[in-house]
Each structure stands twice: as C-alpha cells, then as structure tokens.
Amino acid sequence: MGFRSHRLEPRKLLRFIFLCCLTAILQPSTASSGTAAAGDPSYLAELIERAITAHLADEREWRVLLHYRKNLWGGFSSMQDDPGFFMAADGKTNPQAELAATLTKFFSDELVGRSKQPAQCAFVARYHWLKDKLQFDDRRLPAQPCERFWRWFNEFNAESISVIFPTGFMNNPSSMFGHTFLRIDAKGQTPYTRILAYTINYAAEVPPDEGPAYAFKGIFGAYPGYFTTIPYYLKVQEYRDIENRDIWEYRLNLTEQQVRRLLMHTWEMGNAYFDYFFFDENCSFHILSLIEAAEPSIHLLDRFPFYTIPVDTVRLLAESGLVGEVVSRPSRSTLVRRKREAMTGEERVWLNRLIRDPAALRAERFRSFSIEQQAFVLETASDYLLMRGSGGPEGEPFREKNRSILAARSQLKVAPKEIPIEPYVKQPDLGHGTSRIGFGAGWRNDRAFEEINVRAAYQDLLDPDYGYTPNAQIEVMSFAVRHYHNQSQARLERFSPVNMISISPIDSLFMAPSWKLNLGMNTINLGSCQLCTNGYFNGGVGGAVETHLLGKQIFYAMGEVEADASKAYEDSYRIGGGGSVGMLTDITDRWKLVASTTYLQYPLGDKSHDWRWFVGQRFSLTTNLAFRIEYNHRSHDNDVLATLHMYF
Amino acid sequence: MIKRVLVISLALLFGLQAGFAMAAATGNPDTGPGCGLGKLAWQNYPHQKTIGVQVLEATTNGTFASNTFGISSGTSGCTNDGQFWAEQKVYAFAALNFDNLAQDMARGQGEHLTSLASLMGVPADQQPAFFAMTQERYAFFVNAGESSPSALVKALNDAAATQPKLTKVSLNK
To answer: Of these four, A132, A158, A307, B137, which has the most CB atoms within 10 Å of its CB?
Structure first.
C-alpha cells in the first residue's frame, strides 16, 4: 500500500544520474556563494580537512539530521524537499558536499533558509553537533548569538517530551488510523496545567475547498507537510471535544540532553517541508524522525519501509524502551457514556429530561435528589450539551441550554463526583498487530481447500478490539489465495483494497448512523459457472442498538446497494439493492460471535436475487494469535472455513 | 515568568487598554490569515461563540497553522516563530477555551480553570479559594467572558483583589 517508486520521477532521476558522475570528493566551492567569511578562512579549510579525516559525513548523526536515506543505487538522498534546507547545491544527494558547505556557511552571517537566519542559527542542531565533534575554536569561528532560537527554546521551558496519540476516527478517511504528534512538557507543569504545553505537529498543508482530489493527492505526496507548534489545548479541543476521539499520552524517557537535541532539530524543521504521503511519509513517520534526532543511536525509521500506521510507531517506541508513563484522556462522548453508566435509572431519566429542557431542573422531584446527585446529573448534561454544541451556528441551541444547566450547577457548592473514566479505546499499543496472515482450510460445497489470507491493515469486526475502536472495521489490501483439491492450480479467491464497516449503537443520547463500504473481487458459483471471478461494490447505511441480555449484544440493520460484474451473469453484470441485519456479541473476553443475513434484489442487468448468511466465531489464544470458524452461505453455495490468524 | 505575565497583563488592563482598543478599531493589518494569531489583539477580540471552532478549522486544514504556529516561519515580528506573544497568552487562552472554562467555573474546578489560574499567576495554595470564587460569582464572570476575554480576565483580577484570601494576586506578587 505504500508507493515509493513514484519518488523517482524523470527529472529527479536525471539529476541523480548526473550527480553520480560527479566525484564524491568534498567540493566546498560548490556552495560558497555566501558573503565573506567572518572569522579565520584558513580555519575553514582545516575544519573541512578534519571532517573528511574523521568521516563525519558517514556518521549516523549527520544522516539523521539531514534525513538522508539509502536509495536504490546505494547512495544517499534526503527525504527533505525544501532546497533551502541544504547549504550545497547538491546537498540533497551528497552528504559530504553538504557537510563542507555547512561548515563554510558557519563562517558567514548571511541569512539562509526559509527562516532567514545565519546558518549557525537556522541549523542549530548541525552546528552544535559539528562544534562538539570538531571542537570549534570560538576565536577562529565566532559563535552567533542566535537570540531568536534561544528565545523560542526558552519559552518551552522543556522538561520532557510526550507522544500524543488521538485514536482513530471513522468519519474522516485521513484520520481512520489515528494521528501522532509530540507534546513539549514544560517544567513545573502538573496534570492540571498540561494543556498549556506546546505541541510539535506535522501535517500536510491542504488548500481550502480542495474537494475529493484531496484523498488522491494526499496518497501521492502532492501536498507539502510542515511542522507547527500548536498549543495542546487546541489539539485537545480538536480531538477530544469536537471529533470525540480518546487521546492516549505516552511520556518518553528522554534525558535533558536528548530533549534539547530534539528541540534544536525541530527548529531546523522550520526551514523544511516534506512532500506528505498519506501511507508512508506521514505524520507518524516524521515524528519518529525527530525522536531519532534526539537519540541517533535508536533506529526507528528503518522499521517502516512501506507504510507507517500511527499505532505501530507507538508500539515501536514502547518496545525500544522509550516510553514511561502512559495516560488516557477520554473524549467528551466517552465521558458522557461512562458517567451515564454510573447513574441510577432515575438519574438517567432526569439526564434526558434536562438535556431536552433545562427548565426541568426546577421540578420538585429533581430538587429532592441529594446535592451530589443533582451536581452529577447537571455536569453530565453539560458534557453532553457541550459535545453537541461544538461546531458552528447549528450548535447554538445546545450551548444556550448549557448556560442554564451550568448556572444551576454553580449554585451547588459540592465538588464534582470522581468516577473512574475507562476510555472507549483501550491502550492502543497493547492491541494486536496491525497486519495479519492466516492459514486456513475448509470445504466449499463438496470441495475441500486450503487457504492463505493476508491483510495489510487493520481490523475487522471479528478481530479482538482491545486497543481499537470497538465495532469498527477497516480492512485495507486484503486477499486470499485458495487451492481446491480437485484443481491443479491455486486461485486468487478474494481481494479487497478497502472494506469498512462502522457500527454505532443508537440510544436516547447518541444517534450516529452505521454504515459500510466494500469494494473488491470474490469467487462465486452460479449455475454452470463454477469458481468464477466477480467484481463487486457494496455500500449501505443504517442503525444499530445495543442490548444487555446475558452479556452485551449489538444488533444492526442497513439498507444497501450492490453492483456485481462477472461472466457468470447474463449481460455480465447486475445492480440492485436490499438490506442486511446482523448481530455482534462478545461471549467472553476471548470469544466473539458475529452473525448476519442479507437479502438483495437485482432489477438491472441479470435480474436475480440473493440470500446470504454469515456466521463467524473467533477465539483469541494470545494477543497476536486467534482461531476462527466462518460459515458463508449464498444461494446453493456453502463455504466453511477454519483459520489460524497471526497478527504482526 | 508567571510574574511577568501577570505584570504585563495588569499593565495592559489598567494602563494600555485604550491603546489596544484603538489599534483594534482602526483595523490591525496583521490580524488576517497570513500573519497570525500570535499577534492578534486577543484581549479585545469580541467573544464569538465559534471562535474556537474557526481557529480549529483553520489549523486543522493546515492553511492557517503553518502561518500561525509555524516554527521559525520566516517573517519575524509577525508570528513570533509559532508561539504566542507573552502578553497575549492569557487572553488567547481565555478566548479559545471559554466553553471549557465556563464549565470548570460552574463546578468549581477543572484543568482549564487551573491552567487559567496558573497563567494569571495565582499561586497554587490560593487556587482553591480562587476556584470557589469563580463558582460563587459564576454568572458575573460568564457575562464578562461573553463580551470579551479581557473583560473576563479583568473581572477575575478585580474580584481577586477584593477577596481577602486572594490579596496576594491583586498585590501582584
């Protein structure tokens, strides 16, 4: 799913070949178009000579700071796309020349880069690394004061760095897998003032009103990505209050020196942009690059050659021993859910009444509750009204009601009731791996078969949902190859680039629709056409409810449309519509059951209809190992499959 | 640092407010997208119910974020390298978090209220009294906040000055 080869567009390729023809000898002259050097010019030659002798351009630190990665030809090229980031004309592909040119610029107070500063300040991490390695003599190479950098650096008053992970958000394709950014935790901050911290966020700059081209361009790197330092309270509003995503915060165990290096390199990133690739060089990837700058001996980026899923980067950091304290920040909707769960039946009735009409708080029955109870119901009502009122003018009626509720709450002089708020999405890095491979066997009608199935990412309704958004399915690039016993060759049984289902139980407070979208090919048996390839599109919308009869069940119903294309059909296609009903239930912590039935009528193309049944059960053996049995029925076609799934 | 913010905010409130009001009235050319929130005269920004959302929309689609919060993003003096100007911090926070602040004041505690108190320089040992005061006079403070962030911050400062337990705040410790 990650496409890297597009990076070698013809122009770049030509330039690359041209550069290969140049000698790899250091060429300070290629870059020395700057002003006359301050300091001692003979010292520059000496420093360059010592850098060559010490092979500094081959050191890991230099590669990390310049974002060099090995390319297909064994040389190096930087992922950085802003020419102002390099001091040498060929700096993007020539680490040696870049190092020499950088040293040259350190002797000059010429303003460089997009941030228009002397090179020592614009590239302050490079300066301090080289200063340390070559033991600069300040008399022969005077240090610039870099007031602008130090003012910025001191303002953070940084003590440590946290990785912040807002969990996935089904209703925006660019947020499905979640997001990661860094938070600069200041000295003296407490859990109650943490929102004042600045963050380091990497995001694509998308022009307003871009429309559907956004998705396509986002995948293929058409937008530049920049680093920004948005205050954490704005990010908390965005994810927790508006998009209702639980946030997980991972404190990194970095030393003061590492934090300092990370911030110095972040400052350099002000001169930089990367082409933003949704799947590989995305937010999580470049956030890792900053952590590598903090501690170059840790190799993080190498682990993500094709695509970078945010939770995998968090897991890698945890495995690398970099993660300390982990805390969750539940979304506004999670707060409302958990508080309501902690209520008595009567309190819930009053919660609903107050939300509909705050005047109900003057009712005698409500006044007869204890002050603590009244406060708890009013606070929960306020949480709910804030949740619905976040947004534009359409939120105003909710905000108006919230004013009355809060005015009443302020009259009650009691502290809020403390209840544990279990997040809706459990600690993401403890969930199963995001990729999956399965080995299975079964019967299709009277034919036995073996099957191997692979899924690049990420989660289906039967997979364990620890660490994932419950009742949400996002499958990207999944396929299955089968060998039937009476056939000489294996065949591609199923393939699907995208298969998504979002099931949101509806109740008196939460009313999101459920929906699904599935595109791909499968194998059908129809009349004389046995094991025929069929291309399909299926989409549906509906609703779901949650019940609690012996455990928890979710029932859903959806209206749907489907289009099929196969030589099995008359005119080779059929288009129709119908509906599905289904049920999901966790029988135990390890054992889950999903059952559904679908009826579809096809008035266009091959006029026909279809009844389908599905029953699947999954039993988890460990976090990354599960066994499942699935039964699929279509008209005159029965398929039973047992699979052992490994997540990685 | 906290002391400085408090000194500056008090100076602004009591001394320089007229000057800022004038700047806003004549239209500050730097306040449009492209120059940035960092320099926006937050304390006089009329409280709009949706300002937080507007800012978020602007920052999430990226068009505004790289101008406003971009790191060392070029024109020094315009964006302050992606950070808020010190004297604007408390107003920006009050303006951008008003809904959460109102909820915290009503229930007499919370991280948004604690954060505002810390930006205003209220010492930790006096914060419980400060919180109790915001709950006690909730309606008054919310009315002030609905007119402008500076009205809210001024109302909180004035009220603290008359509260015996909170005199240290008003004395500008």
So the answer is: A307
* Cβ atoms B112, A240 nearer than 8 A: no
Q: Which of A270, A393, A415 sits opposite B71 (nearest CB)?
A: A270
Could you report the per-residue pLDDT of A265-302, keeping only the tens digit for each?
Answer: 999 988 888 887 777 778 888 899 999 999 999 998 88
Nearest by CB to residue B74, choosing from A116, A267, A413, is A116
Structure tokens at A185: 């935790």
3-class state of residue A81 by DSSP: coil
Closest by CA position to A107, among listed A89, A120, A90: A120
Token pair, residue B112, equals 């948004």
Which whole-number Å values give the CA distances from A638 to A533, A609, A647, in the listed order? 17, 17, 27
DSSP class per residue in A54-76? TTGGGSHHHHHHHTEEE-TTSSE
Using CB atoms, pick whichever of A194, A267, A413 lies closest to residue B72. A267
Among the listed residues B138, B140, B97, B108, the one whose alpha carbon sits nearest the alpha carbon of residue A375: B108
A372/B contact by beta carbon, under 8 A: no
Classified as helix, coil or strand, A519 is strand
The full set of domains in chain A, from first to last, is 5-145 (no CATH), 154-329 (no CATH), 343-410 (no CATH), 431-647 (2.40.160.40)
pLDDT tens figures, A500-514: 999 999 999 999 999
| Nearest residue to A162 (alpha-carbon basis) of A192, A194, A188, A184 | A184
Question: Is 50 exceeded by the pLDDT of residue A411?
Answer: yes
Nearest chain A residue to B143 by CA: give it: A403
List A residues 243-302 in contact with B (Cβ-Cβ < 8 A). Answer: 266-267, 269-271
pTM, entire model: 0.85
Task: Tell me if the bond preceding A458 is cis, omega within 30° of 0.
Answer: yes
Q: Is the dihedral of CA A382, A383, A384, A385 positive or negative?
A: positive
pLDDT tens readout for residues A66-82: 999 988 888 899 998 88
ipTM of the complex: 0.86
Q: Tell me the one-letter amino acid at A588.
A: T
Tokens of B115: 């954060």
With CA atoms as reference, the chain B residue closest to A187 would be: B1
Q: Do residues A248 and A326 touch, judged by C-beta distance below 8 A?
A: yes
DSSP A327: E
